[in-house]
Amino acid sequence: MKGSLVIEYSDTCKRISFQFEEPLSRYKDIDYKLWITLPRGRDIDVTQIKLSLNKYLLRILNGKTYASNFPDRVAILAQAYSQDIDIFDSCEEIQIKNKEDENIDQLLSNSTHKVIINDGTHPLTLSEVEKLEKEYQGKENVYFYVEDNNKPLSLEEYRATAELIGEVADTIKSYGLSPLEAAIYAYDYARDRIYVSEDSSQDSEESRDLYKSLFGDRIVCVGYARIFSAILKQLGIKSSLYSIRSDDGGHAIAIARITDEKYGIDGIYYFDPTRDRKQDITDDHFFGYRSFATTRGAALAYGHYKDETLQDLNLDTYKAVVERVQLQNAHFTSSSKYYKSICNMSKFLDGESIYEGDRDYTTGPSDLIKNTSDMLDRVELFYSLLEQELDPRVKMAAIARVRKIKYYENSSKYPYSYKVLKNISSNSQPYLSEYCYPKRMANEMLAEHREEYTKDRVGIDLIKVLKKVKTQKEK
Fold this sequence. Notes:
Blueprint (H helix, E strand, L loop, with lengths): L2 E8 L6 E5 L10 E8 L6 H16 L2 H6 L1 H12 L8 E7 L7 H6 L3 E9 L3 H10 L6 E5 L6 E2 H20 L4 H12 L19 H6 L5 H14 L4 E8 L2 E12 L4 E7 L24 H6 L4 E2 L7 H14 L7 H14 L25 H12 L5 H18 L8 H9 L11 H11 L1 H25 L1
Parallel strand pairs: 1-3, 1-4, 4-5, 5-6
Antiparallel strand pairs: 2-3, 6-7, 8-9, 8-11, 9-10
Helix pairs in contact: 5-6, 6-7, 6-9, 7-9, 7-14, 11-12, 11-13, 12-13, 14-16, 14-17, 15-16
């Protein structure tokens, strides 16, 4: 018999209280759930808690009214006591909620089970990892909720994730790439995996959480989008996962605001690394960027998707909702799906996640926007940024710049020549475009720089030969 324990601190609780429950049907791996509420400021004393818990359990076990109202719970308790099972110690997962300065060392020292510190979502930074490592030094059984992960991570997993995403971001920074070029580099990194979903017996997060997608052997659309978005956020580029849906089910892509002075762009673009992902043992996927930095319309048209995040994107309807909210000086909830879309626009502009699958996402419209004074301005800004289609010449110029760098890193995996770039151009045209001849425009730009690409490739090959000769001489 095993259970799950939640210890929650409360500002209104005056004395310790308990709640024993049978698990919900979806929790098939536990037999019971135990809730313990402690007054704010009380350090955890395991011995005292267990004594008080035993009194509570015996009281409900022997209560006739309780047995009549909750026969399943009483049956679980009766079995535990008949087999001399300790209800507290048999909780294999312990979650601590709303902890502030309270001391929980005794619990961490006595327990060999997973202890989850549920104190919010921690950012994916090494500085945050180091702070927690110092606070929980030597505690290997402690776990935390971390950005882009729905399942809690150990400190070791947290560090590994932060280090890997940080290394990719640092590599991008070292090349001095512009934001658009950086997005291309991140896109290549994220999509360089073959799609493998989890088995029916596995947790769905095996292929969706950032840590599992990076270090595991499973990855689906959410995983691709998480990796891509996490790198962009590490670079200071506003990005979020984004929900769309077709008749076959839901799909996760990414959305990002790319402001790039080098290429004269400032827009919100859509990215679907799953569609451009690695398909087999070859590297042929690097010859196409069809779903990179497209418009919303193109992203939805590829699979006849419906937009679950911004709904119908009707500016007039949004304006009407904003007007009613401001007239009432309160939150307008009767058109909640449109209000939710407006909230998503505002949250994204503030650099927050707008993905419904994220652990802290609030689906209700209650408190997502506290100040409505600039709602309309933000909606109009978001709407205008969505209308900025990427010029096909700009797109190919940025791809060419990144491909030259990647060719230097690995010439066999990322071939680089005028012919290669023309091939990429042919395979990178969006499904929909307001440009009359996007392919021709891109190819004309490539032709103008044909000699430059050849010269660059020859120069890189020469550098590699000279480095190889130098290395051999040093040996």
